[in-house]
């Protein structure tokens, strides 16, 4: 049956357009119940032995997704009208619901009620879309009842009183979520239920049980209409709130409307905003401004202090020009950046948080429900109030908690228990916390995904060799150079001297797209994960291991499929020609960086492979220098390397990662391949190429670097990447580590490089600041990055090998893919850093150590130091004995009796020791070992 749906929509240009869509109704859509005697049950998901079949409404899905994800809840029908409404309201929950429905181990079934002849409902005059959808849910539930008869109980779950009332009047079985869960006889499931506001127990009821003492702590958030008007008039400013990792009472909002960061000081001014929320901010009067460089590092014991006013308003201590007296913190200079307060939340960033609980007093008549404060491992997150019936089992556990709301009368947000991870302090538990906190997908690959992978053993077939699109390069002397122990080898090289005196140089990349086909479950999973994640002790793969470590990996002495970029180069590394081809290669050696370097350095070796390495290295040095001359930055990062025990996986040693010429050689040719491919795909797909850009840093972003350099007598020219590169080259001192430290600080002033769709920006915006390259992309790591998979498809389509998938021809969809890739890449980096911090704690737990550190930032009551030997950064609190004077402009601090002076980039001695000032929150404490001979900077 064919029905027409007519509606009007507004185009991007503002025009109103009438549209008519055909809506097909069918009678061959099956119910999904194995027990059904009428429908085809070959694809049925709902258990034949189930006594109850659940149908959930939209609000139940939106509010109770944590409960639905619990294995105790199964045999659930998800109506298509519910699925669509959830998608329109919350894409994150929609994705979680889709994952449930796609999980073969769960009994969730999607029923297309909107296309079934007997369950489709027309809109009624005067009926709201919400009422129409509720009616559609009731009609579908009634159909299931009639369709299945007495074979099973069909129950509608809804917390909507009106919807439940109408259902009961229509003879439909309906119940609330809480009532149904209680009937299951599993009290622990009640902890998962999100309580509606009317059922909430306020914090004041728990703390002192005297409702008369309630007071308003926070101001109401402005309605969106007022926020929108205020943003248009310049009264409010929009941006993402970022909480200081060292001080949870200090946050920043980057505002494009004023071109600067707005400082938010204190929980009251944050006004219930979480780290990552997009907020509307109102600028405070200038006499309440607080300069970010003047805010003290928060001590652990300050955790419970709810700071209401900035120190400049709360402290009347004497002031001196350019100086701050006392560790309490008094700013004397006129702040350079505005302070503000949050007036509204534009977009929440609430998600699940990992941590532990501390019990609270239990109000009378609580019926076994204990009230507890959840303490997140992330200090930037405020404590969260939860109710639980299993407190005794949670006190020594890491658990997951979700936030439900935050009332203006409550000091803390309210949330609910989701699940237990494991015992506090267990390495596997804490590693899982790292992954959960950074939203890294680490569950095993589903059977549908694994079914897309060719069975092992796999080898190159005669069909591959006979395919005209693929060139046979097995006779080339191809080799790979990677970190030691690398199994997922996705790039290899060759360098052959030509009779002309030139060189043929090739970069060969694993041909992942020959196995990962667009639109398959394998491709969908890789797109969702976005990237492999590298932790200290393990790797979370983007693709299943048979692909990453065998079928695609360019291992030595086996034939493998590749996508090759081959240049002819002069001895001066000038590119004469470029060729792109699918290929078959056979690597002759899988070298580590150390092995490749040793070959190049050993003058006794003159074999062909070593000669190739030396020739490539000579070309790479020329290419690298040419990039630097063009303005590319040679930056540095504090990469940490652990030696891990192969049995216990505990860290045995820790130190800075060493970069060798071999590393730089490989990097240079990977950069060249990425640039060449970027040019090729953009030439053919000017509006839908996936590229990578690095935005030019603003003057404000570079200000901390300029100020630090100035404090040690260096003048940095930041007018261009070339000028900054030259300045960094000249930033040398007597200390060999000085230049690297300056480069590390420069790296931290940069914005992140990001993926983007070429059709969304103009060519000048494609520029990659760090590489000084007008065009760049990622092509060389498709085993580890989904961006490279997309680029492989673009390159293949540009060569006429395959047709470009529809998804990649749509600017809007490609932009959405790029946004997810940026999100996943950022999370992977954060997870890697958190893993390093975790293993640093494990390593130093029983190894208190004295060492040297460098001061990188001066604060009121201490400074941030960097420890070169271990690649660790952290705060050092100044002793509270005696007073300290801080010169912010010169980035210096001294004792008031002039006995000790310290300055930025100065070497200091510190003691490193793991302490636990708060239960279940261990930290590496850095303590200054004062040197009374330090009278000069």
UniProtKB/TrEMBL annotation:
GO terms for biological process: rRNA processing. Keywords: Exonuclease, Exosome, Hydrolase, Magnesium, Nuclease, Nucleus, RNA-binding, rRNA processing. Residues 52-165 form the PIN domain. Its cofactor is Mg(2+). Residues 470-801 form the RNB domain. The keyword NAD does not apply. It is found in: Nucleus. InterPro entries: Dis3_CSD2, NA-bd_OB-fold, PIN-like_dom_sf, PIN_dom, RNase_II/R, RNase_II/R_CS, RNR_Ribonuclease, Rrp44_CSD1. Pfam families: OB_Dis3 (PF17849), PIN_4 (PF13638), RNB (PF00773), Rrp44_CSD1 (PF17216), Rrp44_S1 (PF17215). It comes from the Eukaryota. The keyword RNA-binding applies. GO terms for cellular component: exosome (RNase complex); nucleus. CDD domains: PIN_Rrp44-like. One of its GO terms (molecular function) is exonuclease activity. Belongs to the RNR ribonuclease family. PANTHER family: EXOSOME COMPLEX EXONUCLEASE RRP44 (PTHR23355:SF35), RIBONUCLEASE (PTHR23355). This is Exosome complex exonuclease RRP44 homolog A. The lineage of its organism: Eukaryota, Viridiplantae, Streptophyta, Embryophyta, Tracheophyta.
């Amino acid at each position: 049956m064919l029905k027409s749906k007519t509606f009007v929509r507004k185009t991007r240009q503002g025009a109103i357009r009438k549209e008519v869509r055909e809506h097909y109704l069918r009678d061959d859509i099956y119910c999904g119940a194995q027990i059904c005697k009428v429908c085809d049950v070959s694809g049925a998901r709902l258990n034949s032995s189930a006594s109850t079949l659940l149908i959930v409404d939209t609000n139940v899905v939106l509010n109770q997704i944590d409960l639905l994800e619990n294995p105790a809840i199964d045999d659930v029908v998800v109506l298509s009208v519910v699925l669509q409404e959830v998608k329109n309201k919350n894409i994150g929950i929609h994705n979680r619901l889709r994952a449930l429905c796609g999980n073969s181990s769960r009994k969730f079934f999607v029923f297309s009620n909107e296309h079934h002849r007997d369950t489709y409902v027309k809109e009624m005059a005067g009926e709201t879309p919400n009422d129409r959808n509720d009616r559609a849910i009731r009609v579908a539930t009634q159909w299931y009842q009639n369709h299945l008869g007495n074979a099973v109980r069909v129950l509608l779950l809804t917390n909507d009183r009106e919807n439940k009332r109408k259902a009961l009047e229509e003879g439909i079985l309906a119940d609330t979520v809480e009532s149904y869960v209680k009937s299951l006889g599993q009290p622990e499931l009640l902890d998962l239920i999100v309580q509606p506001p009317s059922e909430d127990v306020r914090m004041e009821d728990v703390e002192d049980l005297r409702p008369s003492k309630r007071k308003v702590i926070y101001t109401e958030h402005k309605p969106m209409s007022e926020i929108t008007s205020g943003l248009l008039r310049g009264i409010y400013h929009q941006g993402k709130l970022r909480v200081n990792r060292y001080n949870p009472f200090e946050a920043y909002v980057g505002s494009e409307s004023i071109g600067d960061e707005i400082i938010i000081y204190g929980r009251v001014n944050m006004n219930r905003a979480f780290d990552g929320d997009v907020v509307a901010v109102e600028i405070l009067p200038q006499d309440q401004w607080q300069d970010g460089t003047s805010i003290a590092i928060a001590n652990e014991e300050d955790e419970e202090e709810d700071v209401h006013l900035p120190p400049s308003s709360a402290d009347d201590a004497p002031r001196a020009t350019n100086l701050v007296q006392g560790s309490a913190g008094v700013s004397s200079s006129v702040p350079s950046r505005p302070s503000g307060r949050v007036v509204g939340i534009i977009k929440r960033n609430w998600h699940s948080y990992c941590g532990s609980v501390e019990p609270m007093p239990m109000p009378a008549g609580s019926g076994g429900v204990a009230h507890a404060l959840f303490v997140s491992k992330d200090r930037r997150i405020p404590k969260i109030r939860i109710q639980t019936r299993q407190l005794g089992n949670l006190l020594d556990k890491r658990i997951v908690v979700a936030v439900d709301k935050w009332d203006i009368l409550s000091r803390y947000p309210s949330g609910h228990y989701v699940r237990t991870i494991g015992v506090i302090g267990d390495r596997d538990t804490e590693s899982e916390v790292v992954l959960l906190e950074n939203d890294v997908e680490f569950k095993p690959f589903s059977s549908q995904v694994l079914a897309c992978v060719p069975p092992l053993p796999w080898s190159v077939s005669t069909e591959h060799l006979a395919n005209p699109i693929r060139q046979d390069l097995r006779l080339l002397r191809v080799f790979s150079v990677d970190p030691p122990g690398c199994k997922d080898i996705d790039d290899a090289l060759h360098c052959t001297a030509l009779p002309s005196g030139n060189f043929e140089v090739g970069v060969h990349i694993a041909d992942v797209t020959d196995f990962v086909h667009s639109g398959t479950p394998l491709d969908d999973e890789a797109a969702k994960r976005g990237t492999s994640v590298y932790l200290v002790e393990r790797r979370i793969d983007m693709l299943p291991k048979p692909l990453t470590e065998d079928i695609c990996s360019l291992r030595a002495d086996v034939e493998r499929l590749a996508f090759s970029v081959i240049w002819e180069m002069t001895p001066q590394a000038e590119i004469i020609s470029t060729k792109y081809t699918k290929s078959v290669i056979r690597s002759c050696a899988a070298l580590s960086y150390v092995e490749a370097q040793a070959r190049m350095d050993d003058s006794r070796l003159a074999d062909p492979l070593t000669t190739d390495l030396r020739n490539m290295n000579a070309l790479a040095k020329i290419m690298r220098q040419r990039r630097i001359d063009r303005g590319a930055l040679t930056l540095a990062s504090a990469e940490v390397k652990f030696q891990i025990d192969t049995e216990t996986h505990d860290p045995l040693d820790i130190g800075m990662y060493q970069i060798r010429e071999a590393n730089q050689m490989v990097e240079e040719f990977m950069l060249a391949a990425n640039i060449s491919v970027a040019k090729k795909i953009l030439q053919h797909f000017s509006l839908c190429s996936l590229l990578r850009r690095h935005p030019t840093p603003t003057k404000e972003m570079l200000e901390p670097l300029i100020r630090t350099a100035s404090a040690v007598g260096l003048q940095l020219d930041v007018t261009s990447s070339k000028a900054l590169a030259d300045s960094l080259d000249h930033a040398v001192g007597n200390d060999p580590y000085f230049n690297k430290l300056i480069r590390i600080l420069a790296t931290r002033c940069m914005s992140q490089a990001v993926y983007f769709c070429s059709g969304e920006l103009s060519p000048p915006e494609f520029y990659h600041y760090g590489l000084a390259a007008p065009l760049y992309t990622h092509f060389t790591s498709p085993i580890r990055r989904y961006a490279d998979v997309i680029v492989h498809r673009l390159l293949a389509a540009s060569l006429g090998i395959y047709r470009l998938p529809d998804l990649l021809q749509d600017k809007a969809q490609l932009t959405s893919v790029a946004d997810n890739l940026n999100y996943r890449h950022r999370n992977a980096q954060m997870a890697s850093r958190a893993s390093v911090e975790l293993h640093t704690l494990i390593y130093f737990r029983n190894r208190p150590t004295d060492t040297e550190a460098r001061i990188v930032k001066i604060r009121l009551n201490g400074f941030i130091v960097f420890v070169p030997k271990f690649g660790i950064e952290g705060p050092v609190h100044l002793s509270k004995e005696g007073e300290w004077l801080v010169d912010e402009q010169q980035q210096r601090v001294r004792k008031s009796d002039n006995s000790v002076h310290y300055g930025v980039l100065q070497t200091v001695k510190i003691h490193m020791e793991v302490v636990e000032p708060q239960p279940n929150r261990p930290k590496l404490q850095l303590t200054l070992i004062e040197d009374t001979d330090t009278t000069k900077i």
